[in-house]
Amino acid sequence: MVRKAIIPAAGYGTRSLPITKAVPKEMFPIGLKPAIHYIVEEAVQSGIEQLLIIISNSKHAILDYFDHSMELETFLKNKNKHHLLQHLELPKIDIFFMKQYYAKGLGDAIRLGKQFVGNEPFGVLLPDDFVISDGTPALQQLIDIYQDTHSSVLGLKKVEEDQLQNYGVIRGDAHTDLIQIEGIVEKPKENPPSDLAVIGRYIFTPQIFQHLEQLMEGVDGELQLTDAIKGLIEYESVYGKIISGDRYDIGKLEEYIELIKIMGEKS
Ligand code: G1P
After folding, report:
1. Residue 19 in this model has a pLDDT that exceeds 90
2. Is the entire prediction scored with pTM above 0.70?
3. Is the shortest distance between the CB of 129 and ligand 1 below 6 Å?
4. CB 168 near ligand 1, within 6 Å
5. Of 14, 62, 231, 242, which has the fewest Cβ atoms less than 10 A away?
6. In 3D, which of 186, 195, 199 has the Cα closest to residue 227?
């Protein structure tokens, strides 16, 4: 059973400045809900019971959004606007918050979840990556593989060659959509090991924490999750699964605009 998941949401969102000076990118609207609401729903639909959201000082809007507003509820009741109360309903899941005080990288953010996770497998959902799946939610697709293999599983997508330098890129034998990972490189500047990039969905065995705790600065001077995965591969099998569904990067303006349009047509 994969019952727990972590959403790291502490980054500065520098790709989306200036709006991210005041509005966390996780709070960008898609229709009338913020992007992170859909990510939390994906976790719920994938059977996750407890979520840890890692935030930073400038991300209090996320905490407020997932809190109950007694003041607003009372106001709506007093004004006889009971029909609006449904819009205040929150996803049915326990959410915990933790602060990452320094932006030391994705590996550092996930490491903070050690006590929360304990000795269980767990999921990671990067809220930049929005997946519109054709049935099975993206995280659930990875959980299905975990249930067969009891191994860590990375969500993958084929990416254009000139874009590979923006991702973790894997090496492995890709005959089917399930791949045993042999190697992984974070943001390769040249000679990427394949055209398969890691997109922001992962299932990890708790052994990943041993490797997260030993991390040294990697690409961009950050503690990289990819480097911990590299360590894990030395000790146990790690799989990759090509995620079925369309993936949008909220940090890229043109993809964000397309996503808003598509989600608007769906609703
Ligand atoms: C992170 C990971 C990278 C992964 C990507 C997916 O990079 O470090 O391996 O491919 O997310 O979105 P970031 O986009 O945070 O730089």
Report:
1. yes
2. yes
3. yes
4. yes
5. 14
6. 186
